[in-house]
Design goal:
about 40% strand; about 10% helix; mainly beta; 5-stranded antiparallel beta sheet; about 350 residues; 20 strands
Length: about 350
């Protein structure tokens, strides 16, 4: 017995595809050990008397061979589209493409589409044209929609699409499709609050007014994905009555600057050495380049970076909540994501 024999055939078809950036096509790399094993456009017969001269190929030979990247490193020249929903991370923008099509030879009337997202705690409406339905779908017509949503809750998420329409014989029909996917957290943040600020080595006796309350926040950000991430911003949004001081660029703090810091410093030194022949625009570009690289933290899978912030309040009765940690990150091909952690609370 055919299991689809009792399945109702609808006059409309619904297709859903996630919109995301393509990925590099990867093939099984060919491990190369000797110079003679590397394919090259120009083959030369060379004899080597030592092991050093017969090791790896030169950069020029690698550039001359178009197949080196594919055969030697597994990275091809092509990009591939995802064939499934893939991995969705908490804080990124989830975009989907929805296509409604009428494959029948009859007209379909009063077609409406409603898209909702179900999590473990709530239903979130994403799109609905119930109030303004499509009056008539002629045979072969297609209606496309793009829906986006910032994923704010991890765990199992279910995308529910409901289609309601009226057939050519006046019978009202509807059907629903569900798409289940898992939302994972790309970063793990461990924070610790302390009331001591002796770590900074700063004297506040000269200030005319001493803060009534002071808190040190230490945050450790770890990449728990299988691919590298680029952290653009790690900051604390202070609560009412609190001010924050970023100590991550202070040499007395325990924060280690990103690896791009040396590159930016070299660029700045080059700009200073050529200041006599450069104009103000060049210096401004070097300054912006340095600031951009300083704010860009590269995290390999499993690696972590530590940050320290100092918060103070001049109010006698300051709130227990001192602020929230905000993270802005990007994936390998620039896909943005934003995380806003729960409020940090001090002991009162």
């Amino acid at each position: 017995m055919n299991p689809d024999a009792n399945k109702e055939q609808h006059s409309l078809t619904l297709k859903v595809m996630r919109l995301s950036k393509p990925s590099f096509q990867i093939v099984s790399p060919l491990v190369l050990w000797e110079k003679d094993d590397v394919p090259s456009s120009s083959t030369t017969s060379t004899t080597s008397t030592t092991t050093t001269s017969s090791s790896l190929t030169t950069v020029e030979e690698m550039n001359n061979s178009r197949s080196i990247m594919e055969e030697g490193f597994g990275v091809t020249q092509f990009l591939q589209l995802p064939n499934s929903f893939g991995i969705i991370y908490l804080g990124e923008n989830f975009r989907i493409y929805i296509s409604l099509n009428n494959p029948t030879p009859h007209d379909v009337f009063s077609t409406s589409l409603k898209v909702e997202l179900q999590t473990t705690t709530q239903w979130t409406p994403l799109f609905s044209n119930v109030t303004t339905p499509i009056e008539k779908c002629v045979p072969g017509s297609t209606y496309d929609y793009v829906v986006s949503h910032d994923v704010k809750e991890g765990g199992v998420n279910i995308l529910a699409c409901t289609v309601t329409y009226t057939r050519h014989d006046g019978v009202s029909k509807f059907f629903r499709k569900f798409f289940k996917f898992q939302v994972m957290s790309p970063l793990t943040v461990t924070s610790r609050l302390s009331s001591s600020f002796s770590l900074f080595g700063k004297s506040r006796i000269q200030q005319p007014q001493q803060p009534q309350h002071s808190v040190v926040v230490e945050a450790s950000v770890e990449n728990v994905t299988q691919s590298p991430l680029y952290i653009e911003k790690v900051a604390i949004i202070p609560a009412n009555g609190w001010t924050v001081i970023n100590n991550n660029e202070d040499s007395t703090s325990t924060y280690v600057p990103p690896i791009h810091h040396s590159i930016a410093a070299d660029a700045d030194d080059d700009g200073d050495r050529s200041s006599s022949s450069s104009n103000i625009g060049d210096k401004e570009r070097v300054k912006r380049y340095k600031n951009h690289l300083m704010n860009l933290v590269y995290l390999k899978p499993g690696s972590a970076r530590h940050f320290i912030y100092f918060l103070e309040s001049y109010e006698p009765k300051a709130s227990a909540e001192v602020g929230q940690i905000e993270l802005i990150w990007r994936a390998t091909l620039g896909e943005p994501g934003r995380l806003l952690l729960p409020p940090l609370k001090r002991k009162v």
